[in-house]
Structures are given as C-alpha cells and as structure tokens.
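Tokens in:
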C-alpha cells in the first residue's frame, strides 16, 4: 500500500508505508458486529512497535471496558462490511498496513486483500457505460459506479472525468465502488469538502476557533463525535484534513486527460478482511473475555440481520451461564433463520483472491439438526465437470452434502438414470450454512473419484501459486494439504 499523496512518509525497508515521525501511537475507530472483540484485541496493544488505541468508542463499548477511550481523530477506521462477512480497514496507509497485518492473525481462515479502488482515492476515469441511474467509469485498476446524482455535470460515454471513491466495496461484493465528481478529504473528526466556502455556518465558526487555516474553497463538516472532543483534538483533526487537502490538490492539479484512466492521488488506503468460521469463533473468545457471549455469537450475527436482536436478547437473559466449551446451537439457529428442508440454498464459492462465485442454487432435500444439509441441483447440459473430464448431460443432478464447520464437502454427480458419473470433493475453509447460502473459500487443492473408482488429487500447483502470491498463508495451505491427504486416503 502506497503512502504517496497522503503525506505519510516514504516506505520502510519492508515496503510498507513508514510510521510518521510524529506518531507516538496508532488510533483506530471500530464499528459493527465485531467491535467488542476487535476492541479487546486492539486497545492498548502494540502493533509493530506502535501502541494502538481505540478512539471514539460507542457507549456500549465504554460500558464494557475498564478503559479510557479518547474522543480523537482516528488514523484508521475498521467497519463491518454490509453483508457482515468481514471488515474494511480504511485510513492513513501506514496505519492500515499495520492494522491489516495484526487482524490477519485472528485465525487461519482470515484472508485479506488491498482494495483496487481505496476510500478517498482520486482518478481520471473514462465513462464506459450508462446503467440507468448512473455511469460505469473505468478508473484503471478497476471500474466504479458514478450515480448521476453525484456528478457535477452531464455525463456521457467516452467522457474523461475526475472522480473520487466515496464508498469502496469488498472484492466479494457484486456492486462496484461508488464514485463522485466532488472532492472530500477526511481528517478523522472533520471532513473538508471542495466547492464550499467557510461562510457563517456553525461548522465554519467552529473551525475559526482553531489555530488552523481552512483552505479557500473548502468547507468543513464535523462528525457527530466532534461534539465530545476537546479543542486540541479538533485542531489535530482539522490539521490532518488540511494536510490531505494540500496533497490531493497538488496531485490532481496536473492531470492530463490523455493519461486516463489512471490514479491521481491516494490519500488513504483500504484493506478488506474476510473472516471465516474459525476466525469468527476466535473473535467470540475475545468477546467472551469482556462480556457474556453465546457460542457462535459472530457466526449467528453474520448469518442474518434479524439474528442480531435475537443474539442480544439471549445474552441478556442467559448472562454468564454460557460456558466457553458450549457447542454452537446449530439446530436452534437454523430452526429460526434457516436453512431447513425445502429451502433454496446457494453455494457461495469464495476464491483466495477475494472473488465470489455462485455455483448455482439447489433445494435442501435433507436437514440434520446436528449440522448437515443435503443439496440437490439440476445440471444443465454442456461443458464438463471440473477435473472429472465427464460431459454434463441434460437430466444430470448434483448431490452435495454440506457439514457446518467441516474443511471439505463432497458432490456426487449422477445421470438421469441414477448412474454415478463421479465425485468431486472440494477442500475449503470451514463451511458455514447461512439461511440463503453455504459459504466458504475454496483452497484450490481438491480430490476426485471417477466413476470407475480411480481417486486423484488435483490442483496442488494452484494452491502453491496462491501461497506465492500472498493470497493464502502457509499455515492455511498446510491445513488444506493435510485435509486433501486425509480425504484421498479415505476414498
């Protein structure tokens, strides 16, 4: 992650952005369903020799911890992603790099990726398509979505526009990062927006009280947390924002349309971390050290928005009656939220590079409250079954058995006459059976059993390449190889 354009200093010997000379600690703001666990992991810890402190803590966090939480500008923000599968870390590149490394150690099945289009980044983009309510803009590293409501002027295909990333999206999300043509920089407790004037607004008057000059043509907008901050914290936040304004203004001033698409400035970095089942249970343990936590707290909240209130209620009623060794109540959770027999379930097949592929949807034909479901999918004709080399034919069905928490699952392919056409065993991060999808990340190496009984292990080379690219840790790869060996021997 580059710190250029952000005023964060040159990169260190390890290639990461260097810690600024005046940074005596790393401040982080945390929000979302993982907040208590991540606060326990980060507050008053040391990250790469730099003390880490959680700031702008919410009222429940202040109540749960015997700690002082300053109301101060954050070097980075950690927020739960919209679908609750993981977190996004955005902020000063040096801070994001160190937090990402720290949080990758939550569990073996935590995976992380740098955002192609990070928060706050400014690009010269080329409009490539009209999609109704907005335009698709090629920014170079990736394409983003510009709502027409966020564009200053009329937009049409072929236009070269300066755009800024307002809402980055994780790689497993189908939606593109959201863009705007205006410029905004974030100082932690205050934003500065280009195109406004200091005027006589309450925000401007607050800024005028501080010993920091707001650049002409930029208007301050204070965060709600600023109401509880002291003047030193407000001045620090405003100074950070002004520094970023200067860096962004210098970077975008010399943009040449002939160079589009391309990046003009990256005042911030963004890293996405996906939590697997093992990681969610590790976060449960962190949370349990602070407050009453039911088994599978994060696993259940990640499954369904409606589950949050149910989990909070259960913990409020049961209190400290939950024990660390209690099993995850799969039957109770699935009875309430699914999946159950007769439901339609998708296979959300994550890839180690962050992409998400849906391997079709099928009917749950069998449900075991012990944690297993059987999924039946009708296959279309055309192509072949991966690694089996058998042609797909009309009338074929795929029978998949999915066990919650298991590092592999088998799919048996049968013809319309019931003939077994082959078995494919996918090795993956522990399966999670959510109400509308089974979710995991594929670990490349797999085992197949052909119709004649021949057993083969495949794609070890792809796993090795994923390790070399940094997409899979050596610990996770070793687990995948071990699982593949056990499955191969069993077949």
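Residues out:
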């Amino acid at each position: 992650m580059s710190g250029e354009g952000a005023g964060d200093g040159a990169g260190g010997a390890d290639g990461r952005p260097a810690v600024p000379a005046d940074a005596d600690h790393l401040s982080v703001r945390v929000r979302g369903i993982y907040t208590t666990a991540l606060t326990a992991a980060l507050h008053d810890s040391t990250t790469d020799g730099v003390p880490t402190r959680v700031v702008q803590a919410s009222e429940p966090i202040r109540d749960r911890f015997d700690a002082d939480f300053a109301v101060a500008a954050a070097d980075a923000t950690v927020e739960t992603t919209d679908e609750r599968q993981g977190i996004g870390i955005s902020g000063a590149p040096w801070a994001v790099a160190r937090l990402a490394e720290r949080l990758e150690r939550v569990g073996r099945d935590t995976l992380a990726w740098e955002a192609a289009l990070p928060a706050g980044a400014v690009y010269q983009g080329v409009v490539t398509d009209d999609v109704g309510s907005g335009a698709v803009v090629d920014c170079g590293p990736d394409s983003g979505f510009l709502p027409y409501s966020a564009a200053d002027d009329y937009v049409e295909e072929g236009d070269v526009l300066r755009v800024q990333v307002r809402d980055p999206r994780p790689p497993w999300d189908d939606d593109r990062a959201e863009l705007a043509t205006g410029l905004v920089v974030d100082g932690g407790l205050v934003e500065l927006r280009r195109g406004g004037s200091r005027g006589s607004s309450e925000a401007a008057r607050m800024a005028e009280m501080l010993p920091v000059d707001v650049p002409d043509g930029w208007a301050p907008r204070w965060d709600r947390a600023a109401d509880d901050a002291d003047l030193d914290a407000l001045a620090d936040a405003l100074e950070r924002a002004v520094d970023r304004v200067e860096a962004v203004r210098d970077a975008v001033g010399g943009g040449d349309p002939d160079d589009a698409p391309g990046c003009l400035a990256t005042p911030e970095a963004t890293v996405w971390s996906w939590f697997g089942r093992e990681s969610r249970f590790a976060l449960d343990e962190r949370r349990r050290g602070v407050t009453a936590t039911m088994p599978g707290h994060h696993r259940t909240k990640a499954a369904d928005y409606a589950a949050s209130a149910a989990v909070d209620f259960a913990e409020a009623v049961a209190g400290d009656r939950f024990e660390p060794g209690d099993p995850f109540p799969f039957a109770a959770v699935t009875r309430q939220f699914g999946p159950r027999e007769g439901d339609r379930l998708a296979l959300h097949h994550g890839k180690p590079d962050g992409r998400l592929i849906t391997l079709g949807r099928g009917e749950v034909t069998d449900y075991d409250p012990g944690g297993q479901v059987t999924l039946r999918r009708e296959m279309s004709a055309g192509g072949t079954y991966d690694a089996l080399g058998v042609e797909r034919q009309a009338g074929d069905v795929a029978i998949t058995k999915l066990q919650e928490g298991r590092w592999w699952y088998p799919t048996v392919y049968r013809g319309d006459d019931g003939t077994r056409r082959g078995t494919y065993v996918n090795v993956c991060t522990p399966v999670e059976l959510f109400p509308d999808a089974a979710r995991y990340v594929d670990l490349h190496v797999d085992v197949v059993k052909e119709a004649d009984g021949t057993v083969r292990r495949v794609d070890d080379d792809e796993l090795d390449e994923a390790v070399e690219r940094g997409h899979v840790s050596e610990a996770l790869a070793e687990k995948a190889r071990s699982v593949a060996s056990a499955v191969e021997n069993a077949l």
